[in-house]
Automatic annotation (TrEMBL):
The organism's taxonomic lineage, starting at the top: Eukaryota, Metazoa, Chordata, Craniata, Vertebrata
PANTHER family: BETA-1,4-GALACTOSYLTRANSFERASE, BETA-1,4-GALACTOSYLTRANSFERASE 1
The protein's required cofactors: Mn(2+)
Function: Responsible for the synthesis of complex-type N-linked oligosaccharides in many glycoproteins as well as the carbohydrate moieties of glycolipids.
UniProt entry keywords in alphabetical sequence: Disulfide bond, Glycoprotein, Glycosyltransferase, Golgi apparatus, Manganese, Membrane, Metal-binding, Signal-anchor, Transferase, Transmembrane, Transmembrane helix
Alphabetical list of InterPro entries matching this protein: Galactosyl_T (IPR003859), Galactosyl_T_C (IPR027791), Galactosyl_T_N (IPR027995), Nucleotide-diphossugar_trans (IPR029044)
Enzyme Commission designation: 2.4.1.-
Name of the protein this chain belongs to: Beta-1,4-galactosyltransferase
Residues in Galactosyltransferase C-terminal domain copies: 212-289
SUPFAM superfamilies: Nucleotide-diphospho-sugar transferases
Membrane disposition: Single-pass type II membrane protein
Species, as recorded: Xiphophorus couchianus
Residue ranges constituting the Galactosyltransferase N-terminal domain according to the UniProt record: 74-208
Length: 372
């Protein structure tokens, strides 16, 4: 081989190697697992709040049940589980029926903790919500007893989007995380659609080493996981895991994609999705038509190509909302919020309705809602 050609080949190999080394270093630098922040400022009611500061929590945190001082920890495997459950939605049960049935075991706000042992985890169950009281009634009827048998120290938070603007499931869940944390020192957050009821109580509403997808086998999908990375429906993240991914994106308006965005956040932060097996992870979904103001977001697929660059720019760290009302029912805490659809440029980009906050249908109480 002539000397010049050899030199050229050497130069080419060297520059290629340098290029790939730099590229690798660059990707690695962007992809380092983020440290969990020690302070996190969000905007709540136009005021900056550091939600990780202990001072945020009132001294009088509700502590339902007997004082836990003398009690031992609950067993890792709750002893009173039933396994497979019978679930039926074709009944005209009312919220009052459910209050009568499970209310005696609960503290105001849908709070519970076992009286015979100290729960292994403090779990906030967060439900993104608007105008689905009938579904909520079924959910409360079936899920409260499951959570009690699972011996959790838990609270149920229904995060109700005020007004008729484009629905934002993910932002409501971020708000639920903050509102629950302001109230009590939760260490695990289960995010659940209101229309999904587990039909096996061995599916523990707890957090594990990695973010957990719980609604693995839904009747609507013939009890088959529709795709490997799905993270929608019901999922659980510990406080640390949720902080590590900066929560959900706030900018998915309308239906679809926000759960896939979270799934990508998890993998970009070097975590995996854990799941129960497909028998334990069975769910029944309450059938329904598409809600108004929750049309598929036409930008959702494009947005998923941007997750990587948006994790730190869009999430808990940029969360801003206004609390309209906090109402304590015996069965749940209802937090009605303005998610500020009218000031988010992503809403108009999506072509969805910014909506108004003067349309107060979502502020109707369940009783009012059921009146003909
Ligand atoms: N949600 C509400 N109110 C709304 C929209 C959504 O409470 O107006 C909440 C609720 O917790 C629900 C979750 O957001 O379970 C997810 O929304 P969804 O149930 O609309 O999403 P899903 O993917 O259904 O289950 C999409 C519409 C399917 C139409 C099928 C027509 N046959
Ligand atoms: C995917 C959506 C997810 C959704 C999943 C299941 O296509 O947000 O379907 O939806 N992703 C995108 O649209 C990018 S379901 O059939 O349960 O309504 O969760």
């Amino acid at each position: 081989m002539p000397k010049t050609a050899f030199k050229l080949l050497l130069l080419f190999s060297f520059s290629s190697l340098t290029f790939f080394a730099v590229l690798l270093l660059h990707l690695k630098a962007r992809n380092v697992p983020a440290a969990v922040p020690s302070s996190l400022v969000i905007t709540r009611n136009n005021t900056s709040v550091n939600i990780l500061a202990a001072a945020v929590r009132p001294n009088t945190t509700p502590t339902p049940g007997r004082p836990g001082g003398a009690l031992g920890p609950c067993p890792d495997g709750p002893p009173n589980l039933l396994g497979s459950l019978y679930v039926e939605f074709r009944t005209n049960r009312t919220l009052q029926d459910v209050r009568n049935l499970v209310g005696p075991f609960l503290q105001q706000g849908g709070r519970y903790r076992p009286s015979s042992c100290v729960a292994r985890q403090k779990v906030a169950v967060i439900i993104p919500f608007r105008n689905r009281y009938e579904h909520l009634t079924h959910w409360l009827h079936y899920v409260h007893p499951v959570l009690m048998r699972q011996q959790l120290d838990y609270g149920v938070y229904v995060i109700n989007q005020d007004g008729d603007g484009a629905f934002n499931r993910a932002k409501l869940m971020n708000i639920g995380f903050v509102e629950a944390l302001i109230e009590y020192d939760y260490d695990c957050f289960v995010f659940s659609d209101v229309d999904l009821v587990p039909i096996d109580d061995r599916n523990l509403y707890r957090c594990s080493d990695h973010p957990r997808h719980l609604s693995v086998a839904v009747d609507k999908f013939n009890f088959i996981l529709p795709y490997a990375t799905i993270f929608g429906g019901v999922s659980a993240l510990s406080k640390q895991q949720f902080l590590k991914v900066n929560g959900f994106s706030n900018t998915f308006w309308g239906w679809g994609g926000e759960d896939d965005d979270m799934s990508q956040r998890i993998s970009y932060r070097r975590m995996f999705i854990s799941r129960p097996d497909s028998v334990t992870g069975r769910y029944k979904m309450i059938q329904h038509e598409r809600d108004s103001h929750n049309d598929p977001n036409p930008r959702r697929v494009q947005k998923l190509t941007e997750t990587y660059f948006n994790i730190i720019k869009d999430g808990l760290s940029t969360l801003s909302y206004t609390v309209r009302e906090i109402r304590k029912d015996l069965l749940y805490t209802l937090v009605t919020v303005d998610v500020q659809a009218d000031v988010d440029p992503d809403v108009s980009r999506s072509g969805l309705k910014p909506g108004s906050n003067s349309y107060k249908v979502s502020l109707l109480s369940p009783e009012e809602h059921f009146q003909d």
